[in-house]
Amino acid sequence: MQKIGSITTTADANGEWTNGNVAAGISPTIMDAAWFNTIQRELANIVTGGGLVLDPANDAQVLAALKKIFLQSGNNLSEIATAGTAAQSAARTSILAAAMAGLSTQQFSVAAATNPANAVRLDQFQYGSNGNGVFIKFPGGMQICRLTLTILPNNSATWTYPLSFSSAPQVVAMPFPSGPLTAPIWLSATSAGSCIFFNNNSAGAQLNAIAIL
Fold first, then answer.
1. What is the distance of C-alpha 120 from the center of its chain?
2. Are 97 and 89 in contact (CB under 8 A)?
3. How would you write the pLDDT of the chain (213 residues) with one tens digit per residue?
């Protein structure tokens, strides 16, 4: 942008207007048409840069254009919401925000987590059941299986997990005796896919078994 000193030599050393000093023979700054044209072009460019068409009957176009060019703090970014999907997508990308599928109290979309710093989607939790019990697998890899099984007296029972583990899990069991237990119930073997319990009693027993990895 030009200062008046860019157009006439009658400006002061800072390129600004001066009233001059007639007694000292210093002329006041000349009101040159070129400078006024420069200011007019600057103001007109603000209006057109804000997407408005110059209107000779409207003296508030510069203000209106500035409001369009700059987000208004009192509007809480509502201008972006009305600017169309492309503008909304660009704004979310800039601030790493997820797209909303509704209000904040409703469902919204997030990408599947791929590292510990990501948000986790509900469908990344695996849950299911079958004849071998129930299981839940967490996004980080942790897995839990559970089953209530019956072991006959002096006999063994194999529990095939409802979902195999990546390696042998930790297995714990709480017995619910159907008769007096006078000897322990052993966990005689365990693997990624199953474990074996042995009931060393003369009475049958029920176990609430849990496997965790």
1. 10
2. no
3. 888 899 988 888 899 999 988 888 888 999 999 999 999 999 999 999 999 999 999 999 999 999 888 877 776 666 777 777 887 778 777 776 666 655 556 666 666 777 777 777 777 889 999 999 999 999 888 999 999 999 999 999 999 999 999 999 999 998 876 667 788 888 989 999 999 999 998 888 888 999 999
Domain boundaries, given as residue ranges, for the chain: 126-212
Q: Which amino acid is at 127?
A: Y
Closest by Cα among 183, 177, 175, 174 to 201: 183
- Cβ proximity of 3 and 16 under 8 Å: yes
> In sequence order, what DSSP letters do the residues of 79-120 get, joined into one string?
HHHTS-HHHHHHHHHHHTPPPPSS-TTS----PPP-STTSPP
- In the chain, how many H helices and how many E strands? 4, 8
CATH class of 126-212: mainly beta
- State how far the Cα of 207 lies from the Cα of 211, in Å rounded to an integer: 12
Tell me the torsion sign for CA atoms 67, 71, 73, 78: positive
